C-alpha cells in the first residue's frame, strides 16, 4: 500500500501562499489514481476497484477540474503551462473524453504554451491503436508506455498484466500519429539475468522510441514483493548485478544515440521531468499529488475519498512546508547533479562545501567539468551520485 504523507503545517485558511518572486516556468501534474490490478512491487498512490470505497472512476475527472479551479483562485495569473503530465496509477483507464475535459480546463485557467508537452502515461493492456488516435485528438503530444520488461518471466515476477508483444504495434501507431514516444523499463527484478535485461534493451531499441527511462527496482516495505522476498518465496535482488545492468544500459542506449541527460533517462529530454530537476513551479492535481510553487511545497490528501471530501470542504491539501533558502540550495544540488546540465561551481561555495572535497571527486573520476563554471556527475559517478550529495552536505 502507499506510504505515509510527509508531516507539514496546515494549509493556510486564507488560501494565500508566501511566494518568492522569480522567473520559474509553470507545469501541471495530473494524478489518475486507478489501477485494475496492483503490481507486486508498487507502493504508488493507486487503488483498485475494491479499494476505492465507492469513488467513481467515470466521474473522477470532475474533481480534478474542481481542483484546477481552486488552483486558479490561489495562483492568479501564471505563465502558460509549459508541460502537462498525466500519471498514475493507470491514466489510460481514463477515456479520451475525460482527458480532454481536464486539458480543456487547464487551458482555460492558465493557457497552454504553443509548444506545451502533454504526456500521458499508458499501460499496454489498457491501450489500443484506436485509443491512441483519440488522445491525440484531445491534445496529448507524448505517450510514456509502461513496458518494464520484454521478458515474460520478469513481468510475472512484477505482477505486470500485459503481453510484451503488444508494445511494438502501439509504439509504431503512436509514432505514425505524430506522438513523441517514451518507454519505461525496470531492471533488477528477482531472477532477472544480465542476458534477459540485454534482450529487453534490444527490444526497446528496436522500437525506435524517442526516449527511454530505466529504473532500478526498489523493493519497498509493505509491498507484496517485499513479503515474497522476506518469506523466501522468491529470491532477493542483487545490488552488484543492478550496477552491472545499469552500466550495460548506459552502453547500449548511448551507443544507439539515445544521449543521457539524467541518471535514469536517455533520449529527447522530457520538458516535464526536467522541470522537476530544475525546481520549476508545478501544481499536482489529484489524490496524494505534490506541488511546488515558489518555495512552497504541499501535498494532497491521499485516498480518493478523503481527497474529494477535503476538496469539497475548501482545499485538497493535507500539508504544506515553506522551504528555507538552505533547503532550496540543497535540493538544487541533489537534483541537478544527477543531470547533464550539472550545477554551477558557485553552488558548492554557497553550501560551504570545501573546494578540496569537490576536487577529490573530480580527481577520482566521479565528477567532471562541464564548461568553465559547471560541474556534473561523470558516467562513472552516476552509480553513486546520491552518496556524493550526502558526502558534500555532511562534511
Report Rg.
Answer: 21 Å
Mean pLDDT: 93
Identify low-pLDDT runs.
none
**Count of DSSP strands:** 15
- N→C terminal distance: 36 Å
Structural class per helix/strand content? alpha/beta
Q: Judging by the overall fold, what is the CATH architecture of the largest domain?
A: Alpha-Beta Barrel
Write the CATH fold name of the largest domain.
TIM Barrel
State the CATH class of the largest domain.
Alpha Beta
Discrete helix count: 14
Share in helix: 25-40%
Count of folded domains: 2
Strand order of the largest sheet: 7-8-6-5-4-3-2-1-9
Which strand-content bin applies to the residues? 15-25%
The CATH homology group name of the largest domain: Aldolase class I
Structure commentary:
This protein is of the alpha/beta class. The chain folds into two domains: 252 residues, Alpha-Beta Barrel (TIM Barrel), CATH 3.20.20; 71 residues, Arc Repressor Mutant, subunit A (Orthogonal Bundle), CATH 1.10.10. It is built from 14 helices and 15 strands. A nine-stranded mixed beta sheet has the order 7-8-6-5-4-3-2-1-9, with helices on both faces. Strands 10-11-12 form a three-stranded antiparallel beta sheet. A three-stranded antiparallel beta sheet has the order 13-15-14. α1 runs parallel beside α2, α2 packs parallel to α3 and α6 packs parallel to α8. The longest helix has 17 residues. The model has no long low-confidence stretch (mean pLDDT 93).
Amino acid at each position: 500500500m502507499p506510504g505515509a504523507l510527509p508531516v507539514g503545517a496546515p494549509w493556510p485558511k486564507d488560501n494565500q501562499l508566501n511566494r518568492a518572486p522569480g522567473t520559474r516556468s509553470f507545469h501541471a501534474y495530473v494524478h489518475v489514481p486507478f489501477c485494475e490490478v496492483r503490481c507486486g512491487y508498487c507502493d504508488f498512490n493507486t487503488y483498485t476497484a475494491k479499494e476505492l470505497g465507492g469513488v467513481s472512476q467515470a466521474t473522477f475527472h470532475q474533481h480534478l477540474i474542481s481542483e484546477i479551479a481552486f488552483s486558479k483562485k490561489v495562483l492568479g495569473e501564471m505563465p502558460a503551462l509549459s508541460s502537462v503530465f498525466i500519471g498514475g496509477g493507470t491514466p489510460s483507464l481514463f477515456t479520451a473524453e475525460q482527458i480532454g475535459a481536464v486539458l480543456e480546463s487547464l487551458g482555460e485557467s492558465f493557457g497552454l504554451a504553443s509548444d506545451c508537452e502533454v504526456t500521458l502515461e499508458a499501460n499496454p493492456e489498457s491501450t489500443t491503436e484506436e485509443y491512441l488516435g483519440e488522445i491525440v485528438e484531445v491534445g496529448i503530444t507524448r505517450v510514456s508506455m509502461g513496458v518494464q520488461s520484454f521478458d515474460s518471466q520478469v513481468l510475472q515476477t512484477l505482477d505486470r498484466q500485459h503481453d510484451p508483444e503488444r508494445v511494438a504495434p502501439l509504439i509504431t501507431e503512436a509514432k505514425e500519429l505524430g506522438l513523441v514516444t517514451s518507454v519505461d523499463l525496470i531492471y533488477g527484478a528477482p531472477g532477472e539475468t544480465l542476458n534477459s535485461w540485454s534482450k529487453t534493451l534490444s527490444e526497446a531499441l528496436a522500437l525506435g522510441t524517442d526516449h527511454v527511462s530505466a529504473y532500478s527496482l526498489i523493493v519497498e516495505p509493505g509491498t507484496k514483493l517485499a513479503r515474497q522476498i522476506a518469506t523466501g518465496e522468491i529470491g532477493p535482488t542483487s545490488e552488484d548485478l543492478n550496477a552491472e545492468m545499469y552500466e550495460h544500459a548506459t552502453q547500449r542506449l548511448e551507443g544507439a544515440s539515445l544521449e543521457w541527460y539524467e541518471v535514469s533517462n536517455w533520449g529527447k529530454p522530457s520538458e516535464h521531468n526536467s522541470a522537476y530537476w530544475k525546481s520549476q513551479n508545478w501544481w499536482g492535481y489529484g489524490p496524494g499529488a505534490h506541488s511546488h510553487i515558489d518555495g512552497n511545497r504541499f501535498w494532497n490528501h491521499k485516498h480518493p475519498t478523503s481527497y474529494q471530501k477535503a476538496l469539497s470542504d475548501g482545499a485538497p491539501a493535507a500539508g504544506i512546508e515553506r522551504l528555507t533558502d538552505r533547503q532550496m540550495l540543497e535540493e538544487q544540488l541533489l537534483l541537478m547533479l544527477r543531470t547533464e546540465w550539472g550545477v554551477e561551481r558557485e553552488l558548492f561555495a554557497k553550501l560551504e562545501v570545501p573546494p578540496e572535497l569537490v576536487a577529490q571527486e573530480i580527481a577520482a573520476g566521479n565528477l567532471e567539468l562541464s564548461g568553465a563554471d559547471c560541474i556534473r556527475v561523470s558516467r562513472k559517478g552516476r552509480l553513486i551520485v546520491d552518496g556524493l550529495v550526502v558526502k558534500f552536505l555532511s562534511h
